[in-house]
Write a structure and sequence with these properties.
mainly alpha
């Protein structure tokens, strides 16, 4: 049984789409390396399409949609500049390297952790929770890259 989306959910959906498309368009304008842009942005585009296609049948919580959007933005910014050349991240925390990739790994782990906490709409079945727990276990290995 599907619930009728509230006005709040519709607003979140359209705001998410507007922000996603605005950042996607910006990131595609004169990227440093077009091939890198395409490879980095492709997962965000695929994810956006999947979220749109499953909006009525597999709804997530607004919190999880927010974290997915943040992760997509990180991918798009990384694709525009390349991860090694994102401004403001050069020499951050006294490092000689650009730490933007660490932000990306952190966002991926945070998104997965939120998904693993069962932040799906009540109409979603338990198979999602099992998949999220398995995915979270794999993401734990990414903690090494952050440290």
């Amino acid at each position: 049984m599907h619930s009728v989306p509230s006005q709040e959910h519709k607003t979140i959906k359209y705001l998410w789409i507007i922000i996603f498309l605005a950042v996607l368009i910006w990131s595609g304008i004169n990227p440093r390396d077009p091939l890198t842009w395409m490879l980095e942005v492709a997962p965000a585009i695929i994810g956006g399409i999947l979220l749109a296609a499953t909006w009525n049948s597999f709804r997530l919580t607004p919190l999880l949609y927010f974290f997915v959007l943040v992760h997509c933005i990180i991918l798009m910014v990384g694709g525009h500049y390349t991860y090694a050349e994102v401004p403001l991240f050069d020499g951050l925390f006294g490092s000689e390297r650009n730490n933007y990739d660490k932000l990306g790994h952190f966002a991926q782990g945070l998104r997965t952790s939120v998904a693993g906490k069962g932040n799906t709409h009540p109409q979603t079945g338990g198979e999602w929770r099992l998949l999220a727990r398995l995915h979270r276990r794999v993401d734990l290995s990414g903690v090494q890259r952050i440290l």
